[in-house]
Design a protein that fits this description.
The protein is an alpha/beta fold. It has a single domain (9-240), classed as Rossmann fold (3-Layer(aba) Sandwich). 47% of the residues lie in helices and 16% in strands. It has a 7-stranded parallel β-sheet, sandwiched between helices. α4 links the parallel β4 and β5. This is Serine 3-dehydrogenase. It comes from Rhizobium leguminosarum. InterPro entries: KR_dom, NAD(P)-bd_dom_sf, Sc_DH/Rdtase_CS, SDR_fam. GO terms for molecular function: serine 3-dehydrogenase activity.
Length: 248
């Protein structure tokens, strides 16, 4: 039975900023080998170089999670470089909030592609390796909005509820392979997520609210580390956290 973070191979999507970047730093500092996926190749390349210069193990692979082939390449690169994959963190996500009546259909499609299909593609890429190993850990990122629904966030909430449903089904299906599953649902965390909101009035109001209560992305990184660090016979299935000041 293994325990801890050291020497584990961790693949992270959405690793170019925010939650993904913070988690990459946190786990690398604790001895994990991190493989970073994101569309912004310059950012993840810089992060991988920075971590490698400090003596940590890191690789960067440009990845658009809406492209199944690219997600498979990301995971296969990790396995080819380090011999296995221990943790798949499906973190990439978008949150362009707007009321349904504004008919931001293109944004709905993009959220479904990234927030739902991106998670499924991550599962599809990691699962064959993990079932063959008879071990592994898939961590999917939902949200407080995967537990509650607010006006103006309906489609985003729907995608994050879907992540929780997918994760629970996955949990039940992978028991024969000794694979662990975790859903992490953050509340207001200081990241670039609000930059995805195209409706300026909604963006301004959301930023004003979040700026008063948001906690750092390191909080998320520590929750990932907690779940990963537990022994293999402990399956931390769901973590929901908020700033203490967040009422919703």
């Amino acid at each position: 039975m293994s325990q801890g973070i050291e020497n584990k191979v961790v693949v992270i999507t959405g690793a170019s900023s925010g939650l993904g970047e913070a988690t990459a730093r946190h786990l690398a500092e604790r001895g994990a080998s991190v493989v970073l996926g994101a569309r912004r190749s310059d950012r993840i390349a810089k992060l991988a170089e920075e971590l490698s210069a400090k003596g940590y193990k890191a690789k960067a692979v440009q990845t658009d999670v809406t492209d199944q082939h690219q997600v498979k390449t990301l995971v296969d690169t990790a396995v080819n470089a380090f011999g296995r994959i221990d943790v798949m963190l499906n973190n990439a996500g978008l949150m362009p909030l707007a009321p349904l009546e504004r008919l931001k259909v293109d944004e709905w499609d993009r959220m479904i592609d990234v927030n739902i299909k991106g998670v499924l593609y991550g599962i599809a890429a990691a699962l064959p390796h993990m079932t063959a190993q008879k071990s592994g850990h898939i961590i999917n990122v939902s949200s407080v909005y995967g537990h509650v629904v607010d006006p103006g966030a309906t489609v985003y909430c729907a995608t994050k509820f879907a992540v929780r449903a997918l994760s629970e089904g996955l949990r039940k299906e992978v028991k024969p392979y000794n694979i662990r599953t975790t859903i992490i649902s953050p509340g207001a965390v200081s990241t670039e997520l609000l930059e995805h909101i195209s409706e300026k009035d909604i963006q301004a109001g959301t930023k004003e609210f979040v700026s008063k209560i948001a906690i750092s992305a390191d909080t998320f990184a520590r929750t990932v580390a907690f779940a990963v660090n537990e022994p293999d016979d402990v399956d931390i299935n769901e973590i929901l956290f908020r700033p203490t000041a967040q009422p919703v």
